[in-house]
Amino acid sequence: MTGKRGIQIWVPIAPRYTYRETSDWVAGLSRAVGSIVPDLVSWEWEKAARRGRARLDFTQNAVNKTLVAPYAVRPMPKASVSAPIAWEELDDPGLRPDGWNIRTVVPRVEERGDLFHAALELEQELPPL
How far is CA 75 from CA 80, 83, 85, 106, 129, in A? Predict the structure, then answer.
């Protein structure tokens, strides 16, 4: 899903897990990805220090953090909307966090369907890392 400055990845899981279990799993997954492709991942907070690499900010998965809900309108010029995207859209060089707005998101949903719908029903098990 498009975030204000990046993307948010939502992983639908079975409701039997505790917050600690999910938080630890996300941290472990992020570290595993970072160790497999260190040329693509940076742990630096400062964007300039990342040298074009992505920051996997698993610390956003925390009690005191806020995430933008799907289809939330941001209080920004042109009223950009947080829009769920398909995996293949990540390859689109034109993908932008403000790519959809209050006027364009409804036609997108009409054309593509609700890309977030599966996250509301899918109850996955967390695989071992």
Answer: 8, 15, 21, 18, 38
